[in-house]
Amino acid sequence: MALLGSAAIAMWWDIAPAWRSEFEDWHSHEHFPERMGVPGFRRGSRWVSAHGGEGFFVMYELDGYDTLSSPAYLGRLNQPTPWSTKLMPQHRNMIRSQCRVLESVGGGLARYALTLRLSPRAGAQDALRAFVKAHAAACCVRPGISGAHLLMTQTPAIAQTTEQAIRGARDGVADWIYIVNGYDINAVTACEGEVRNAEELARHADPAAAWSDIYCLSHTLEAVGTGLSGQGATPNA
Question: What does residue 113 show for φ and ψ, rounded to 5 degrees?
């Protein structure tokens, strides 16, 4: 697969401009290294709105689904650092989805990421998956596109964590998530239009739940043993 592993965490939120600089420092130099020190975490990536908005998209790629409820990960979630405790309340409009990877094709991450949140109609899960799988296979070999991935949210049965409690409001959850990566924003934008306007999407997915945006890569970090990318961050043991 283009993604590293068979599970993922996909998140969207926004940060007020007054907190943005400190947030990016914390996320790059403390939070990413902390998460990459958890066994099973393979790669983290942070993306900023490609159109100048306040939103972020963050994705963690995991070895397997059991990482989401592992003692090591739950320990991090329930023992946030002082800096995390300070920044967590500034995460606004949080959508946090813990996912299985259904499809992943192509060559991995690139500069831009289209993220689409979808929800299958009742009884149309197989048909929607087949449509997205076909689109992913066709688009990922085009100029400007590097990969495409379909995630399905499956929230593990765990208690609310300390980090969630600090954020206050209950996190929102996506259903299915389709991500298209590319190095040409026009090619990525074309994929957005193809999917959003497809007759298959209207038949197989709830139009009221469909949402999409395009993001630009800001920072990425891989765990020890899988190579490192990004600047100024060293994973914790």
Answer: -135, 120
Question: 185-196 and 125-139 are packed helices; what angle lies between their axes, rounded to 10 degrees?
Answer: 150
Per residue in 38-80, pLDDT (tens digit) is 999 999 999 999 998 889 999 999 999 999 999 999 999 999 9
Residues with Cβ < 8 Å from 102, sequence gap 6 or more?
129, 150, 151, 152, 176
Contact 215, 48 (CB under 8 A): yes
H-helix or E-strand spanning residue 46: strand 41-49
- Residue 207's alpha-carbon distances to 119, 123, 170, 199, in angstroms, are 8, 15, 24, 11
Structure tokens at 20: 């943005």
Six-digit token string for 8:
């993922």
pLDDT tens digit sequence for 100-144: 999 999 987 899 999 999 999 999 999 999 999 999 999 999 999
d(CA 151, CA 10): 9
> Sign of the CA dihedral 23, 176, 226, 184?
negative
Of all residues in the chain, what percent carry a pLDDT higher than 90? 85
User: pTM, whole model, 2 decimals?
Assistant: 0.91
Token pair listed for 228: 């490192």
